[in-house]
Amino acid sequence: MSQFENTRIVLASRPEGRPTPQNFRLEQAAIPAISEGQVLLKILYLSLDPYMRGRMSAAKSYAAATEIGQVMEGGTVAEVIESRDPAFKPGDIVLSYSGWQSHAAASAAQLRKLDPANAPVTTALGVLGMPGFTAYAGLLTIGQPKPGETVVVAAASGPVGSAVGQIARIKGARAVGIAGGPEKCAFVRETFGFDAVIDHRDPDMAGKLAAACPNGIDVYFENVGGHVWDAVFPLLNTFARIPVCGLVAQYNASGEFPGPDRLPMLMREVLSKSLTIRGFIQREFVAAQGPAFRKEMASWIADGSVKYKEDVVQGLENAPEALIGLLEGKNFGKLIIKL
Amino acid sequence: MSQFENTRIVLASRPEGRPTPQNFRLEQAAIPAISEGQVLLKILYLSLDPYMRGRMSAAKSYAAATEIGQVMEGGTVAEVIESRDPAFKPGDIVLSYSGWQSHAAASAAQLRKLDPANAPVTTALGVLGMPGFTAYAGLLTIGQPKPGETVVVAAASGPVGSAVGQIARIKGARAVGIAGGPEKCAFVRETFGFDAVIDHRDPDMAGKLAAACPNGIDVYFENVGGHVWDAVFPLLNTFARIPVCGLVAQYNASGEFPGPDRLPMLMREVLSKSLTIRGFIQREFVAAQGPAFRKEMASWIADGSVKYKEDVVQGLENAPEALIGLLEGKNFGKLIIKL
């Protein structure tokens, strides 16, 4: 393709249930012109994240849906190739929210410059970016783990879960992770240093989780829902806190869910155990905690107390398949498309 | 009966579903002897409250169940008739937790002296007692109503609901109440001064509630559950707070609830609207907020900004029927047994 073409992936149709490749369409378009205060970006890396499933649906959510024919949204690391703003010059590497495309115009005010000497620039999409901040803000503000308490998180090999467990341990709590398959479980225990890890494919997952949490669960960082919730629920302690940042297991579901109705039992436990359930989107906390997060997380990475893992897939054209796999837990670490 | 006999009501059997008079048994027993540091009490008033249904069941809850044959628990206002503690003398009126009986021994340390000159002593069981404090602590600590926000509470003619709405208005919020029947609704609007009130028996309750909350609901103080929840749920605003202190509508239920399963939809809304659901028992907040509550509530009663209503039933023998009625919303105001 010519360097004067913008390659992009748009939403072709809304998925019913599990997304398919037919819901996406690869297009060529003209490179956008930039106006005063803007820069032209060449995208280097695109972040793929579970929230993207929500944007593909028309259902009401915390953010507007992507329209049919619009470029799929997403966080990106990009190189400035043309600038009409004094704060940026060609060659600068920036964090932007440019979506699934090779080039984009962006307002300078919406960019954050990255210094490749500080950390690999891809970390701005993962451990030092939105997923890491989701873990940090949700765990510390809502979860509030105390020394000796037990923190449970699913998708523990992923960018949010792995940070949740490692930050919990930094705060003196026990970290119990749930992950899919022996390879991920070993990584969670050995590299991320969780105190225990359970394979969610284990037929006795609930029993194993109970055994790994002999003092119950004080914080359940909810990012998946589904059958992990069912295993966690009876183990929750009085005054347990449940930050809810994702429900990947039910993103592809639609229509009514079959009974029995678990809502009355949930509310009974909320009451009898004084539980706190709190949904959140990380941007709620960005203004107050973003700078502290970047400083603190960078120091934890530097001193080795937080590790991270990236899963880099080559080529924008592979993004649809990669996102479909992400929703099924096929990625292993922070999923990033390298353009 | 002789003045040397203690009349008491014990739990005869555990209810399955709705309690019946057969679950209770009236007994005579000896007046207890008191030891050093104790007083002998003659009970004047017994508080009946929804939580008592929970104590009748063996199901795990925040408090131990009452054993079969044990005196039913409950808050009481009593007169000291004999004292072996220097802090109390015969004739003193105290708040105690003596249960469904005419006489009781109590440790002086567990009593609080009441001054009848300050307020009618029955208010220590209602607006100035546990129900009023439940409203105060739950609404202010968890609900955190801001000026102009909309606060919804059910059982609005009851001791908790009426205080929730009136405190919400003191804090500058709109108070929307839900109550059963025209008489209670009129009282909620006219005497308690709510901005709007909905009859939960209205076939279009959900539609009326939506009309009464044109800007959505910011705080739903949950004390009933059931179909009120279903009407409230779609109206919740982003960042809405839901203190949960009771679920009267489901206390008599047992076994599984028929589908569809509403839990996944609840969690989806928790996530997409950043909802806070927080169960609580008032005693969690007593040490920190009890003194401030008593002072502030007394001043609100004195200046007329908080009104209260009591529903006084004569005779301990009528307590079982009164409690059964309470669980069906038959009381009108704070239910108190006068012995």
UniProtKB/TrEMBL annotation, chains A, B:
Pfam family, one: ADH_N_2
Domain Enoyl reductase (ER) intervals: 19-337
Signal peptide (UniProt feature, chain positions): none
Top-level taxon: Bacteria
Keywords: Oxidoreductase
Oxidoreductase as UniProt keyword: yes
A molecular function (GO) term: oxidoreductase activity, acting on the CH-CH group of donors, NAD or NADP as acceptor
SUPFAM superfamilies: GroES-like, NAD(P)-binding Rossmann-fold domains
Full protein name: NADP-dependent oxidoreductase
Organism encoding this protein: Bosea spartocytisi
